[in-house]
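Q: Could you fold this chain for me?
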Amino acid sequence: MLPLYLSTIEGLYSYQEKQSIDFTELTQAGLFGIFGSVGSGKSSILEAISFVLYGDTERLNKTDKRAYNMMNLKSNQTMIVFEFLNFEKRKFRFVAQWKRRKNFDDTTPIERTAYELIDEKWVPMESADGALVTNLSYPNFRRTIIIPQGQFKEFLELKGKDRSEMMKEIFYLNKFDLGPKVGFLQSSNNRKLENLKGALSGFESISTEALNKKKEEVEDAKKTLAQTKEDFQDLQAKVRILQEFKDKSIELQQKEGQFNELNSKKSRVQQQEADLNRYEKTSKAFREPLNYLQSLNIEREGLIHKIENFRSVKERQLQEIDIVEKEIGAIQHDYLNLNSFRGQVEDYKLLIQIKENAKKEKELETRLIKGTPFVERTKEAEHTLMKKLEETEEKLENLKSEKVDTSQLIEMEKWYHRKDTIVQQHGQSNRLLEQLSADIELEQSQINKLGYTEDNWEQMIGNELKLIENEFNKLREQETQLQVQARLSSFATDLQPGMPCPLCGALDHPEPMVANHVQEEIQKLNLQKAELEEKRAEYQKLKEQVSKACFGLNNKRASYEQIQQEVNAQASNLEIHISEFTWVGYSSEDVGAFEAQKEKIKQSEQITNSLEAEVKQLRLDLQKNKDNIQKFEKELDSIKAEIAVVQGVSAHSKNALQQFNYKEFEEIELDEVRRSKLALDQKIIQIESGYLTLNQKLNTYKTKLAEIAGQYSSAKDQLSGFNQQIKVRQEQLAKLLREFKFADITQVQQIIQRPMPVEQMRKDIQQFYVRLEVLETQIASLKDYLKDKEFSEEDLETTAKLFEFKKEELELQLSLTGGLEKELAHLTLEIGKKEKLIEEFDQLNARAANLKVMENLFKGNGFVNYVSSIHLRQMCEMANERFHRLTRNQLSLTINDNNEFEVVDYLNNGYRRSVKTLSGGQSFQASLCLALALAENIQSLNKSDKNFFFIDEGFGTQDTESINTVFDTLQYLHHENRVVGIISHVEELKERIPRSVTVEKDSEAGSKVKTSWGS
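A: Sure. Below is the predicted structure, expressed as structure tokens.
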């Protein structure tokens, strides 16, 4: 990304009034800076860019009333407008704005919009997410485009574990931390294994032997069913043939009656057909000529009426033309004198100008008299301000000479903060251990209350479920036998002496079956099954409850062991950290002495800042006073010049008068002259517009008269044509009357005007003949079918009864066979389920072994630390390309086995030493080279063209030599064709950087931006 313009930053933090920054001027220099005192608003510029692009900021989140707190308290609106080129050289504009409502604490929602420059036009974009055009997320943007304060040295001196955590966040190495995911997969896999064990315990009674036995029973039942079905179909065919003969006889009688009824109506239908034919011929010949003749007569009457209207309009138009010509004659004289009137208007303008200049001349002379003494007083105030500034600067110099080194206090503050963090984490881990111990005891007590232990619960509940399933199988067998007995007993009850058995066909039944209390036994069985089902559900529920408790217990134990390891590690870290406390005169347990020294330095800095602010304000006031003196003197000279100009213009205007004499108007007021000019202007407008309007009106009337005259003539010609056509049609009708032998047209009209549904009548007649012919054909076909066939009603009844008996027998056999097939299907399905569960159980066992291997691989973030080491080594190689050059090949960076940075000292035989032994300038160089390598690495991951780099770093802790080192470092970056910007309050850097902007904070107007290359 390359910034172009921050065209608007208004109402944000200390920026009260609208400010702008032209980044094109800054980036042209390659190396530029943004300077200003502490709190002036330098970093707010970068925060404005980040917020308008991503809608996010490090200082405040959405729950902090961000819109209210970011808005300047003296402003009623906040606006940020930022333009830039992305890595594809496309130009974008992002805008963020919100306003204050009537309630001071309430603001409108933050509105963010984005535009792209396409064909020299700003086209709105659908989304205002900066990541879509920069190809960088908000965190990566801050790591690659803007390097925030305090990140350089912190990254260099971090311990191995802390740096690995930072690398995980920056390079998204969490995707390699697969330990928790493997644990989750193991937990899920073990839970599935436990569920499969429970599910397989319910399939112990399912076997291949039981399946084969059930198949044999089904085959026997199917053979019996096939024979019964064959006998049933034979009887069904015989009944169908007898019933069909009976139905055909009845249908023949009905068809003959319908035919006789239709045949009696035949003569009447033939008469209707003749009348219909006569109506159609007459209508076809006469309807069209009669309708056309009627239409012609109607149009002829309308045309006669139209001709009369044209005649009256023509006469009225002539009268209106005469009136308009008289009105034009009345106004024509004034219209010819318009030029004279316009000359008077021009003189009125000159008179008004003369009187206005006279009034302005008096006002200027009054201002000149009042302004002269004010300049003298401003010059006296300037001497007073200069004396006060000298006294304040002397106090500030004395205070700065007593300044104390703060680097030791900064290191101590980091040590105390680190200790508090370790102690807090240690306490949290101990509390978590106590909670887990209590949860483990509670889980164990719940399992013991149920009467089980962790080792025997699964076997005991499984045995109970097996016993229940065996009881179920016995009850199913008894139920099947009782259902067969109940059905056979119903057949035995229906047996009649001398009648064949519907099942076996025998005529003699010496010992028919008698079933007693079968239904009572079936009801008892159903009650026993319901009790067993309820008991099985209870044990299944108990099994799930105990399984869930055991699974939770195992997880809590594993968590307990993991947290115990963390507690031990934290205690060890605390001991090591305390051993690193080496500052004399201070205590590792009591921070009182440290806080006292810190407060002393803080008070000294506050006094220094107060004096610096006072000096700055005095300089501003002094400059403002000088500017005012120059401004006031310039204003007085301008007033004198303006008086001379006004006098010259008035003299010229008096000489330019043509029709008026100025002396005649010398005593007349300015407003009265203006009213006279206005009245003359209105008169000219009325004369000119009235004359033009009347001429346009006259032309319009004449044009309309010509149109009406043409239409009148055309209408008379059309009337003659209509008369001729009517005569031709009347002769045509007379010829048709003679042809059809009608006395006059009245007879024809009586025929064709009678309402007659032609289509419906034609359809009814046609349907009558079709029905008559169809009935005749159907009767002949039925007689032919019934010829030479015999039928007996008694034979039909006997065959039908035998068919019903056989139907009941078939239904019984179907029910028995269907029940056996259902049992076989259920048994087959259960065996399939069992085989599938066994196969799935084997797969899960194999998966558990693989997951164990993966658990060992990713245990303790080992793999993540390995990847982190690779990234760190690559960064060292990239950083050393600059670090060698900056240190004149004396030093280089490397990584030890604990992922900590060390320095290779080539002046001392290449021995390694801690980065803490580097001087201030060398430490900054190493930190900056690592930051650059880090940014380039991330940009490579995001496929971004890096052409811009911004450092927001505090350089105030550097001495003179370090400042020189910093500048050399920045110059090297510039020589690498990189655009580099810095934010600092160090004046020495400002003097040596070619292009810069300075942010100054005014107590009244807020932060102001000033450039080093002029306005």
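A (continued): The longest strand covers residues 2-10.
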